[in-house]
Amino acid sequence: MEHREEELILRYAAQDEHLRELYREHLELKRQLEDFRHKVYLTPAEELEKKRIQKLKLASKDRMMEILNRHQHEVAH
Fold first, then answer.
1. Which residues contact 9 (CB under 8 A, 6 or more apart)?
2. Nearest residue to 23 (alpha-carbon basis) of 67, 53, 64, 56
3. Which of 4, 41, 44, 57 could, after both became Cys, cross-link 29 (CB 3.0–4.6 A)?
4. Rounded to an integer, what distance in angstroms lies between the CA atom of residue 73 and that of residue 49?
């Protein structure tokens, strides 16, 4: 995620609880992925879990971007 996107998320999250929750979820998923990256070897079950987390993280980012776009559109009008 780009620094500018993160700044916007933090700005709008102050007033948007849903965005705030998505951001917390995104950060937790990112932390979980970092845990996997620090392992030398992943079991097949861990590989599956890593892929599942990656998909969830991407989905949460997509939802956050939709919300950001909506907020920015509202500000523009």
1. 19, 23, 64, 68
2. 64
3. 57
4. 36
> Of 70, 77, 22, 76, whose CA–CA distance to 10 is shortest?
22
Question: Judging by beta carbons within 10 Å of its beta carbon (0-12, 13-18, 19+), is residue 45 exposed, middle or buried?
Answer: exposed
Q: Which residue's entry shows tokens 């890593």?
A: 50
Task: Write down the residue that tokens 């590989």 correspond to.
Answer: 47
Residue 1 clears pLDDT 80, i.e. is over it? no
Residue 2 pLDDT grade (very low, low, confident, very high; cuts 50, 70, 90) = confident
CB count within 10 Å of CB 43 equals 9
Q: Answer yes or no: pTM beyond 0.70.
A: yes
| Cβ atoms of residues 4 and 52 within 8 Å | no
